[in-house]
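Here we describe the complex-level prediction in full. Unlike the single-chain runs in Section 2.1, the three entities below were treated as one system.
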Amino acid sequence: MENLVYIALFAPFVGSMFAALFGMSPKQTFVGIIASSLLFISFAASAVLAFHVYTTGTAIHVTMMEWISAGDLMIPFGFLVDQVSVTMMTVVTLVSTVVHIYSIGYMDHDKSFNRFFSYLSAFVFSMMILVMSDNFAGLFIGWEGVGVCSWLLIGFWYHKEDVAREKNPSISPSWAANEAFIVNRIAGLGMLIGIFIIYWNVGSLQYDVVFADLPNLSSSVLNAAALALFIGAMGKSAQFPLHTWLTDAMEGPTPVSALIHAATMVTAGVFLIIRANPIFSMTPEVSFFIAALGTFVAFFAASMALVNRDLKRIIAFSTLSQLGYMFAAAGLGAYWIALFHLAAHAFFKALLFLGAGNVMHAMDDELDIFKMGGLKKAMNWTYIYMGVASLALAGIPIFAGFFSKDAIIETAFNEGTYVLWAILVLTAGMTAFYSFRQVFLTFHGAKRYKDEIHPHEMYKFVLIAMAPLAILAVIAGFFMGGFQTFVTKLLPNYEMSHHTHELIVVLTAVVLVFAVGGIWLAYKKYANGLKRDEKLENSFLYKLLANQYYIPQFYEEFITKPYAMISEKMWKDIDMKIVDATVDGIAKFLYKSGDKARAMQTGNLSNYLNWMAVGGVLLLIVAAISAMLA
Amino acid sequence: MIGLSHYLIVSALIFSIGLIGVLRRRNLLMLFFATEVMLNAVNIAFAAISHYYNDLTGQMFAFFIIAIAASEVAVGLGLLIVLYKKYGTLNLDDFASMKG
Amino acid sequence: MDNILSILVFFPAIAGLLGFVVDKESARAYGITVAAIEFLLSLWLWFSFDTANAGMQFVEMIPLIPSFGISYYIGVDGISLFIILMATLMTLIGMVGMSTTKNIKNMIITLLFLEMTMVGVFVALDAIIFYLFWELSLVPMLYIIGAWGGPLRIYASVKFFLYTFTGSLIMLVGMLFMAYIYHNTTGIWSFAITDWYALVLPVNYQLWLFVAFFFGFAIKVPMFPFHTWLPYAHGQAPTIGSVILAAVLLKMGTYGFVRFSLPMFPDASVMMITPIAVLAIIMIIYTAMVAYAQKDIKQVIAYSSVSHMGIIMLGIFAMNAEGISGSIFQMLSHGIVSGALFMLVGVIYDRRHTKLMSEFGGLASVMPKYAVIFGIMLMASVGLPLTIGFVGEFLVLLGFYQVSPIMTILAGTSIIIGAIYMLAVYKKSFFGPVTNEANKTLKDLDAKETWSLVPLVLIVIWLGIYPKPVLEPIDNSVKAMLVFMDKKAITQEAKDMIRVSKSTEGGI
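The structure predicted for the assembly as a whole is:
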């Protein structure tokens, strides 16, 4: 079994290194094929491991070697395959495999094809470290590793130039990449502080040691640690106010958005909360804050998705919103439900993104859904895939999202947090609306795109590769019970109370009414083509939502620009004019005083004698004073 | 009665006259005279103090100073003559080759 | 080879003297050969080094002026060993990648002399010998900046020389006073550092001496507000000068704190934690912001050096093994990474004769290999895990957290603002379309440049993944030093602050 752990972990690494060998040469299809096969091997190993953990119920723990040891600190490269991590491993490798195969088709015409696979596999490797590590430091390696890969992949088309924010809200791929990296560094600092708190209070960073020692810690320490870790999670999972980078990250190639910015990396924050659930279950205040923030983000992001016109950005907002749901569940203590929604979301959201990729491919990289329409005929399979994914996202029965999202909403009710419940229900309706607004605007109605564009379906093998995700988006919900028994061996179980159980039909019905209502509204408005409502589009609220509440502009005006200005001032006014000028001033004083004193040297003996007399008198005075003092 | 302090006052006065001469005179020859005046002021002080303490060392010293002053004048005057021959003047303001 | 250390110190100098008779055309090859032999010798030193022994090894002692207790006394421990290795490595790499052609023979000879002084500083165990090499190292650097530098080279080199020299004179006064006190208490003269260690000083003496030594070291580091010579020196120095300056010469200052200040004045050091930490945090944040405002790539890296040296200073005053070991590791990491970054800037300067970011843009498209190596070094510089930069930075911040959580959070912002200025440089120079015609025909790294940079990349990754061979000997020596400091400290505050590792609690 140990070997399988290493195979699952290092197969993507080998793939990445292999692709990197050809990184600077022109496209080689076999690079993509080999990278994808290695990913599949990793997936197979993960699946076998999952089966092993499922049947035996025991975790596999391996320690590869020592990493950092100094003072009393000892951090190994240790890997833990238990119910939680094996779930993540399976989900990550499965989605990654699909995305890799998809990319062979999608990146077909890109001259940096090989480089892309190198980055993509490196990302999977980092993600595997993140989920498999048995200590917080190892988690941090993966945490930063996925951050760098995300930076590389968002900025994959680095040669594009910066444009004004009005033209493209993300300015340029390289700008978006830097933004993502820097925001994640803010979160990284939070995470590091959390690690420091844990280390100095426990003396170790190993999960098992830390969790065993928690009862000995004071509640202020626990709260501080939980809060610091959650700040880390906020950055990676793009929670408010660190959320702006996620939509800008859509500048990356679409497979990247599907893998990193929907299915895997952004869920790392949720994974951290689930992984460190012993800490969070002992800090109810922080947990409630997480739930409240999650709920807020769910609503907040959904509201921005309502009016957006960019195909990928809508999905990005929906990802943000769904992450909010996951945090709500995790914050309320329903860790296994959060994990289940994480997995289900990974399947249907990746599918949605890949479908969006097909559309982009067909539309010559057009992203504005107002300029699409009527694609159903040309892209039947993509239509079905995106429809299925949207149904799952909207939470329509039998689809995966129904089970997982409904459970979260029920949890909010069960916990007695009715405000959160109400917001989550409302958000479910909004989710259904914007998902289907997008589907209808893209695929239904008359065509609105230019005549020179000839939409065409994606390659067959790509469509086949997407099938597993589509199937899982439909059926994943049926495994909910089995999943619960599996992961609750490790995670605290969460059951609805008797009272909630009685009301379950009513609760489900309420959610369903909102979801179906949202779809119906979208159908009414958009299924028969786009009718633009000038008045609505010029209203304040619409503009507010379309401009993301002006938060990016706010950040630019109040953080980015002042930072640049202060830096400039510090350099020119403080460093040059005060610090350096003082040093030069001292030097100049010495030089000048020497220069002035030079005038004494007239060469005239008489002057010299005068100075000598002055010196003699001075000496006499000094002698007299010292004699008097003595 | 003339006591030690009278001698010392005279000595100090003469020394001051010499010092002012050294400071104010521009002619090298006059400078020499001024230094001689200062030396003799010191001699007076030495002789007076020597008498006051009944110790001959001071008067001995005065003799030495007279001898040194004499030899100094001999060498110094020689140098002055060379200088005068070379530059045609003994005015200090004309010798400023050490100006910084 | 019992006197390997003496060989290490004087071999480059003797070879440098012989260099005068070497033919001009073969001077470069000669220099590389000598530097390579020197590097192999230092590797040999590492292999014969007993990692379990925390004390001084390969000690040599020859009395020079016995009546004043001055002797030629040298040795290495885990703390100095790797800095020596880095000094010899960076000299070799710098020579391999050197693009200077003007007066190449003089350059080679100067570098070899510089190598002697650098190794000398780190092996010296006698204060006078230490001071001798410390000051001698200024001369070759003065010459390198003054003779091969940019348009402001005279100003920059004089500023560098006088500024650091002033500081070291104050340090010299401290040393003389220290020896004087030693003579007063024990009745014998001695300048041996190990003798000085044994001397327990009253707290007010410690404070004065700490301040005297502080000026010498702080200007060299350079600590805020004594840092302004550095941007000029880097801005004007030729590539090789910047590489050596950033990689090795700055480390003399931080090394001095570890070798002198901490073990000699433990109480004063503990009392000085807050002021120094405040200066260090100003260094970290302020210079990082100043770095962001720079237009010239080399200036960005120069200011970033100051910022990283702030992290090192912070770690030294964490007073626990995590922080100090991390800080010494960070010295190595900063040496290699900033050295490599300066070489990378040199690469582009050789091609375009400008270092202004506005002149570039889109270099990743024209020079992919260059962009990859620059990217790796950038990531190491911002402290990405599994690169050499993370280990030190992580340990330093971890160690200092025990002293003050708030200050650690402030210092920790370096991982954010460090990323800001480095990514800004990368974006402005490497990303975007190629806008400048002159950049369209740039050649990627040639063999010479690749051969000098690839070893550094390998080290960056190797020590990021497996730092143990280096970290372990450092850690052993640091732990022993902490035990010693804890025993020696006289005030209770100092004893409370100095944190002895659990594994060494019973003493060694």
